[in-house]
Amino acid sequence: MKSAMKKSLAILLCAAVLIPCMLLGSFAAENSDKTLQFNSDGKFTILNFSDIQDGYPMKPITKRYLKDTLNLVKPDLVVLTGDNIAGYRTKTKSASKNEIKEFMDIFKAANVKVAMVFGNHDDEDNAADKAYQYEVYESYDNFIGGDYGKSSGRLGTLNIPILSSDGTKTAFNIWMTDSGTYNDENDKGGYGCVHKDQIEWYKETSAALKEANGGEPVYSINFQHIVVPEIWDALDEHDEKVDGSVEHGGKYYTLPEGAKGELGESPCPPEYTNGQFAAWLEQGDVIASVCGHDHINSYEIDYQGIKLINTPGIGFNSYNNHVVGSRVFVLDENNPQEFETYCLAYNDVYAEDDAVAQSLYELYSDETDTGTKIAAVFKYIFALFLSIFK
Question: Do the bridges between strand 36-37 and strand 158-163 make them parallel or antiparallel, or are there none, so unpaired?
Fold first, then answer.
């Protein structure tokens, strides 16, 4: 009896995966122009997705969620902050290519430009190394890549200027930084760290942008996968566990007063630094650093004049709770030192009466029990059937 029930459930789950995949089409023309420019209203919108790492084939909930978030936000640029694929799961070049193509095809169909950095999982235990994966991204006309990372081995490290609305100058800048995978520099263990050659390149490029801007820094946002170690200094430290705290090294940490968002898990920065944060302070151009990696963190913390920001994971392969989502940035060329940012969680994108969306969430969320998941399969198939005839 149990075996038959499991078999029936497996068939229903397969249907839940295959039906929406057949229904999700793509459309829109390619955009080969890779120049970024503020719009006539002086605004520029970035949509940040992190930690898709959904495997191949991509789960229907993630695929639908990406498309509907794009349709809602209508960004000028999509930024991917690493762990875009689950290398430890795809393992082969063909599977990795297909996993990348699943979400890049969505962005191509939306006619939106894309920039990306790698995370620690993209090439982990994977025959498809970063160089191979980068070639897949570069096969898309809407992808914005760069040459620096190729020559240094830090693929994905580059800067992307945003021109003023009249096109006469660089009004803002985006730093894309490969934060590495796992520590191979010393015996401290843990995650990798931005290397000294990358930091020197950043300082030289920052200085050149400043000189071209009449001696004034070009205000910038840095995007990378792994947060800087200074996150521990930015959080409030406690000797004992308190409400909302996370543990690290025998101490407990909470968001400081004035911070926004959630600290859902302990941040996972490297155990050492090569001076990246200090370089930002020295150059005076980076106003925010945005990371992923810690899937259920959605905080915004002001620290020494720089905002440390975490974007929650968008994929439904792990940490599937109410925080799963994306982050939006709205830049203003008339006030480049300030920007608007907010997270879009699942229920921010979908209405409560969207039966397809809600049944999918019940099916994949960690916040629902087994009975609810089984019922969600039937609810999803029924809701999907009804939606066809609307």
Answer: parallel
Q: What band does 10 get if pLDDT is binned at 50, 70 and 90?
A: very low
Q: Is 257 exposed, middle or buried (0-12, 13-18, 19+ CB in 10 A)?
A: exposed
Residue 52, CA distances (Å) to 17, 136, 199, 257, 266 in order: 17, 16, 27, 31, 20
Distance between CA atoms of 309 and 259, rounded to whole angstroms?
A: 10
Global pTM value:
0.91
Nearest to 44 by CA among 306, 288, 339, 307: 339
Nearest-angstrom CA–CA distance, 221 and 288 = 5
- Please say whether the beta carbons of 283 and 217 come within 8 A: yes
Please name each of the domains of the chain with its CATH number: 31-349 (3.60.21.10)
Query: Alpha-carbon dihedral of residues 358, 360, 364, 370, nearest 10 degrees?
Result: 80
- What distance in Å separates the CA atoms of residue 172 and residue 39, rounded to the nearest whole number? 13
**Which residues, in sequence order, are bridge partners of residue 116?**
80
Summarize the chain as % helix, strand, coil (round to 5): 35, 20, 45
pLDDT in tens, 317-343: 888 889 999 999 999 999 999 999 999
pLDDT at 191: 97
Q: What is the CA radius of gyration of the chain?
A: 21
Query: Strand, coil or helix: what is 240?
Result: coil
- Return d(Cα 114, Cα 122) in angstroms, integer: 17
* Total residue count of the chain as it appears in this document: 390
